[in-house]
Amino acid sequence: MDFGRVRRGELLKKVIVLENIPVPYELQYKNVKRINLRVHRDGRVCVSAGHFVPQRQIDTFLTQNSGFILQTLERFRKMREAGDGMAAGKNRIYEDGDTLYLKGIPYRLRVVEGKKEEVAPVGRVLLLTQKDVHNAGRRKRMLDAFLKKECQAEIDRLCQKVYPAFREMGVCRPQIRIRSMVSRWGSCQPAAGVLTFARQLVEVPESCAEYVVVHEFAHFIHPDHSPRFHAFLDRMMPDWKERRKRLNSRDWVIRQE
Hints:
Elements: E1 11-18, E2 21-30, E3 36-39, E4 45-50, H1 55-64, H2 66-82, E5 99-102, E6 105-113, E7 118-122, E8 125-130, H3 136-167, E9 175-179, E10 186-189, E11 194-198, H4 206-218, H5 227-236, H6 240-249, H7 251-256
Parallel strand pairs: 2-4, 6-8, 9-11
Antiparallel strand pairs: 1-2, 3-4, 5-6, 7-8, 10-11
């Protein structure tokens, strides 16, 4: 390979066959001492290696880690299809034994038959009592309603926590709405005085949800994403970038699965 033609940080598209399965991956040559591998939730396989690491050594490394790569890709595929623990949307099917998240903590779903239908956390189990345990539609409605109620309580609490600082800046107390969202965590309508938050926020760690609340409140001061807006966030929440990264990477889901 002519390393002189590969620019530092240049992204190379590659494919390797692992256990008879073609696996595309992205390769970058960097100033690193070893070969690094990361499998992302969206299905991307990323590899970084030192500038003078030969391709055959990279191939050997990937082959040696084929089990991990293929198992992780399959796990993430199932998570995406199910909506994973983060996004119990219209395509999510809840089944006994599933993992759901409340404030970043995994709960095992247990579905039992009973006369009084309810959903209740019991230790690290989310116990759902249902008259007809085979009625998946009813089970989904029960869980969606439970998660929305829990989200409303958590977001209301976080809004109460951060609002005093914004009240001093002349921000009127906004109306808080919760709804299922698939592409964003929240939105702000400054003229209407409305903040809308994704129901899925009840599933993320509290520090991440608090970042979203501060972010949306900040739009009452700067209704855009200009440098002034980000400078304002720096003052209000100095570690907001770390919180945002953790929220969007969802690494807390990966670690606890």
